[in-house]
Amino acid sequence: MIIIVIKILLLLLSNYGYVLLLREKFQYNRYLAWIAVSCGIILFLYVFSLFGSLSFAGLILPKVGIVLSAYYLIKRRSLLQLRQIFNVNIITVTFGFYFILFSFTLFLNRLEHYDNFSHWAIIVKYLYTQQYLPKADTTIIDFTSYPVGASLWGYYFVNFAGFGSGTMLVAQFWLLSACFFAMISIIKDRKRVITIIVIYAVIALFNYFNIAIRMNNLLVDFVIPMLALAAVAGIYSYQNNVYLMSLHTILVVGVLGIVKNNGSFFVIIVLIYFSITAILNGKRSLAGVSKRMPVIMITILLSIMPYWLWMNHVKDVFGNHLSKHEVNVDSYEKIYQTKTPAIIHQIINNYIHHIESLATLPTRGFILVNLLFIFTFLVIRFVIKRKTNVLWMLLFTDIIVVAYYVGILLMFLFSMPNQEAINLAGFDRYASSIIIFSLGIYSYVCVVSIENCFYEQDVELRNYKSFKSIKSKKIYEYVALGLFCFGSLSVLSENNGINYNFKNYKKTEPYKVSQVVKNNMHLNQKKYLIVSTDKPDINSYFTQYVGRYYLYSSSVDAREDFSTLSKRRFIKLLSKYDEVIMIDDHYTFKAMSEKYLHQKVNVGTYSVTRLLNKTVRIED
Question: What H or E segment, with its residue span, contains residue 224?
């Protein structure tokens, strides 16, 4: 474990080398550089993976970064002072506390969520062990149409530091942290505590609306809105430098498009914002706009290029072998044809009822966002008595949320099986993405509005006396302290929630399976039967997917009910498999094994040949 920690820290040092390169050669914003580097690494791995050279890219990237880090640190050693290295300010206190706390917690955690084992963890494991993208004959990966952006980031970590749940979770969190850090770039005057605390408090609030996902898994529904917010922050920060704005957009949006198919919605939003910003900033004459149009068109083209390459890759490699959630008109038509008018009516009714209910977390989030916008407007307009465009930003934000909600409804109607669509499977998880995004947009609007309302508008002239009155200074201090306490308590609450779930980990199917079979890293074609007493997890195929991940085979079945089997059928069932995995004290299976096979079995792994022993196998 110590070696893995050291290697993860070396990866941090490696990324820092690339950050120093960006800052040295392009004068890149220090807060935006981390996400730009992360996205650059993902795109580099992505391009090489498409050409079958993933192993080379994964091997060379960390080492080059470490060399760069050593070079720049040695080069700047005369400029570095002790107080600069250990500079403590409100950013290091808040974001440093957040980063260290969750990095430690997640490293010690384990994967639990269903989708980790059905795709996100197993694709990272596949990339790590095989060193290439899934092929047409790769049966271990079910969702072959899913893009691999976030998975390549996980691969980047495990390929260097070693494979493990903790390493993958830390990798995903560090990508999120780079996005959190990018949000600070919105702030012009970072000597003012209140603006930093607003960003910190909103990031802490993200955890509440991320409760359906949480950070102790590899799902990307939190990553998508955070990448979008990091892209928006870069566009705003570089609005007077169209070339850096373009570079940042290409890097972040390029990755955003290959994280998951529904990331396309956020790609469109960001590219629209980029285009408007690029047109409005600078000379607004026809000649000035004409000069910027090529940059805008090239940026849009290069931003969507990774997604276009992925769609072509899926078509070329897998052809007509469609997987679940494939972005394909034919598959949508087939699914939609199974939906009768009655089923469609039921889906729509359930959807409307769900989003109208205050018990629905995203609905409460939508209401909160609107209340925050309105409150901010009232304070600025009637207390501070300044003009503001906060209500216009609220309108734009609500339009984005409504459009996303319509998209979710269309997904239920066109791309989900009937029963899943009727049950609105995953709605809270999908909707949380847009709520988190809208909260982030509010934080940007709030910070910009606060800075525009400061009594002293000249940043260079501001000091601890730059307040309109003693009363306004006290209000400033109390609000900042209150938001700091709220943010810190929210962070601690989320951390305690993750730790609480981890305490119950021993009761879960992943723990039971991992204790019996460990983690097989060799892809194989053996046929396994998992014997478990957990009927709900078996019926939902959770146990089966957990088994596929740990056993690393696509031929894994799970069963709970053996009581109806005769001796002949029991032996015939076992004869279909190479090994039987009993993960808990299954009374019926033990009794039948002793009665029919004359074998005493307990929790463990058993060769079917050994179990049947001299019993004659019954062929199908």
Answer: helix 223-237
User: With 0-12 CB in 10 A as exposed, 13-18 as middle and 19+ as buried, what is 305?
Assistant: middle
Whole-number Å distance between alpha carbons of 79 and 550: 50
Chunk the chain into consecutive blocks of 10 residues (it has 620) and report each block's average pLDDT, rounded to whole numbers. Answer: 93 96 93 97 97 95 95 76 62 92 95 90 96 92 91 97 95 97 91 90 93 86 96 96 96 96 94 94 73 93 96 86 53 63 91 93 95 94 87 96 94 84 89 96 94 63 59 80 93 92 90 93 95 93 95 95 91 94 93 90 92 58
Strand-pairing partners, residue 528, are 556, 579
> What is the rounded CA–CA span in Å between residue 407 and residue 263?
12
Predicted pLDDT at 192: 80
Interhelix angle 2-26/30-50, nearest 10 degrees? 110
- Within 8 A by CB and 6+ apart from 566, the residues are none
| Euclidean distance between CA atoms 446 and 468, whole angstroms | 20
3-state secondary structure of 213: coil
pTM equals 0.93
DSSP label at 243?
H
Q: CA-CA distances (angstroms) from residue 119 to 155, 219, 304? A: 14, 9, 24
Half-sphere exposure of 541 (CA within 13 A, CB side): 9
Length of the chain: 620
Tokens 């940007």: give the residue.
444
Are 413 and 339 a contacting pair, CB within 8 Å?
yes
pLDDT of residue 451: 83
398 CB-side CA count, 13 A: 14
Gap between the Cα atoms of 103 and 172, Å rounded: 10
Distance CA 420, CA 68 (A): 50
pLDDT at 619: 40
Q: CB–CB of 611/574 below 8 Å?
A: yes
Q: Based on C-alpha coordinates, what's the Rg of the chain? A: 27
Amino acid letter for position 457: Q
Q: Is 289 helix (H, G, I), strand (E, B) or coil?
A: helix
Strand partners, 531: 559, 582
The helix/strand/coil state of 558 is strand
DSSP state, 594? I
Closest-CA residue to 544 (of 140, 111, 138, 124): 140
Distance CA 9, CA 6 (A): 5
